[in-house]
Structure formats: C-alpha cells, structure tokens
Amino acid sequence: MRYHVFLNGFSDEFEKQSLEVLGFIKECCSDIEEGKTIIACRENSDFEKLSVYAPTNDVVFITSDRYIPENILNSCEKYIDDEAIHIYGFDNFSSENSVRMSVRKNGSSLVGVRNMSLSDDCIFGKKMIYSNHMEATFKLKKSPYFISLAKGIFEGQITEGNNKNIFIEQCILNTSDENDVLYYNIEKEDKKEGPENAKLLVVAGRGAKDKASVEKLEEFAESMGGKLGVSRPVAMSAWAPMDKLVGVSGIMAKPKICITAGVSGSAAFYAGIEKSDFIVSINTDEKSAIIKKSNVAVVDDFKAIVEELKKYIK
User: If you average pLDDT over residues 15-24, what whole number do you get?
Assistant: First the structure.
C-alpha cells in the first residue's frame, strides 16, 4: 500500500496544514510506500517555495486562477490510486474533496482523523464524536481510502536539502452555470402532506429569534413548494406547532433538499435530516455543528440569504 497527499495551496494556512500532514505521516504512515503530493494552487504561485512543504519527493501542481471545487476534483481524479490511502489537510477544502472523491471512486472516507492504523484488508481511523466528548474508532473497509485530518493534532518539520520532482498541470476552467450550479425541480406539495414527506424542507432554528421570522421562513418554504420544520428550541418557544419538530423526538425527514436557518445542529436534531439528499445550512456561527454536516454552508444572517434565494425562485 502507498499514500498520496492532497493539499490546498489556495489556503492561508497551507504551511500549517502541510506540517500537520508531515506529522501525521511520520506517526501513522512510516511503513507505507510514499506516493505523490498534489497541490491545488493559483497560477502565479511560487512553486519552489510551496514544494518545500510537500511531504513527498514527487509534487504535482494543479494551477487555476480561482478555486472551483468541481474543476479541482476533475483534475485530481487521475491521481487517485485504487489501492492507496489519500491524505488531506484539515480545512473545508480537505473535508469536501476527500468525501466527494471517495464517492466518485466508490471508496471509503473519514474526516477529522486523529490517528490511523492498518490491517491486512482495511484501515482504522480515530476521530472525536458527540461534540468532542468521545473518541471513536471507525473501520474503513473499501479502498481507495480518503481521510482528512483533525486540526492541531500533529506536528511535523521540514527536511532541508531534499530536491523535489515538480510537475505543473493547468486546471482547465469551465465557468458555465451548468458547472457551478445544481438545479432541482420541486413540485408543490399537497397541503395535507406533512414535513416528513416533503421533497424540500426548510428548518427554522433558535437563530430565527422570533415567531414572525419563523412564519417568514414558512412562507419562503411554501413559495418553493416545500414545507417548514423547526428545531426543539423553536417548538418549545411556541413559535411553531410541535408537529413540525424535526429530530429523534419528532419528524424523521428525507427530502431532496433541506435548508436550515439558524439551526445549531445537535446530534438529536441532525438525525431527523441526515437522510436528505442535499443539505444547505445558514448560520452566523461558523463553529456550529451543522456547518460541518452540510453539503453547502453559508456563514451569514439567514434573512439576507433568503432574500437572495427568492430571486432565483421561478
């Protein structure tokens, strides 16, 4: 087995992430064959400087004038090894790309990894769960393997004097709307149907702040042919009926699209939406649990975002 490394050269924390990956490799991959480091970065980057932080001797730069996930994924896909471990850093780029690539390649993925060990036919990864109150061990059975690291766990050092084999590849951009935007056609729901059967579900959380805002979110949901759900704090504040409560003690939904507004994302709540095809979260707190569990996360006031989204509703 061998390992390959994927790093985000667009990030201001590139050096820190690279050093943590170096530390992880030293601690967990000392008996594994070295592969390549693939760095996605801007076209005008200092390749020599960036290559110093690469954990491997062979370094591939995928260059672009801006970061578009789909294009970066397409360019990185050719470097995926079906029998290898693919190691990513700790930022959102790393979590997103590791998971999406594992889906493309029909492999296994784990984010927020704190430690790793190997057996003959699988790998084991450790990460924190339940709001960082417990460490769990996960078994990844299916190769290729994709892992992204937890932040602040590993420390590595640059080895001076190593000459790198540098390869530069231009990432071809496709800037059409079809490449950047997902389109869904949602039929208007039967008024008698509840949120549990909705194809589009908008969920209001404590961040809605008052009953009037929750009612606005319900109007927004209905304008798109969807339904409203609420978190426990909203239901307990009597801002919405209890029959709209989402979570283990209420509705277990599986919509095509779920939009959460002002929801923190506790484990009990998330169980009610985890089977959604696509989750969009809007929250002013970038550290809220729901942010890391969403396909798309927007760190902003939901009212401003909802007003913008209304412009695209047909």
Answer: 94
Q: Let me know: does 188 contact 225? Beta carbons within 8 Å.
A: yes
Q: What is the DSSP letter of 251?
A: B
My answer on whether omega of the bond before 55 falls inside 30° of 0, hence cis, is: no
| Per-residue b or e along 38-69, where b marks 16 or more CB atoms closer than 10 Å to that residue's CB | bbbbeeebebeebbebbbbeebbbbbbeebbe
Q: Which domains does the chain have, with CATH numbers?
A: 2-180 (3.40.50.620), 195-310 (3.40.50.1220)
Name the residue type at position 125. Answer: G
Among residues 42, 50, 39, the alpha carbon closest in space to that of 97 is found at 39
3-state secondary structure of 101: helix
Query: Looking at residue 8, what is its pLDDT?
Result: 93
Per-residue model confidence as pLDDT tens digits over 128-157: 988 788 999 999 999 999 999 999 988 888
Locate 299 and state its tokens: 């760190």
249 pLDDT higher than 80: yes
* Distances, alpha carbon 112 to alpha carbons 17, 119, 136, 151, 185, in Å: 13, 20, 11, 7, 34
DSSP alpha helix (H) spans, the chain: 14-28, 47-51, 69-76, 92-104, 177-180, 211-223, 232-236, 267-270, 289-292, 302-310
CB atoms within 10 A of CB 132: 10
CA-atom Rg of the chain in angstroms: 22
- Mention every residue, 6+ apart, whose C-beta is less than 8 A from residue 192: none
Asked if 239 and 230 count as a contact pair (C-beta separation under 8 A), the reply is yes
* CA gap 301, 216 in Å, rounded: 14
Residue 231 contacts residue 247 (beta carbons within 8 Å): yes
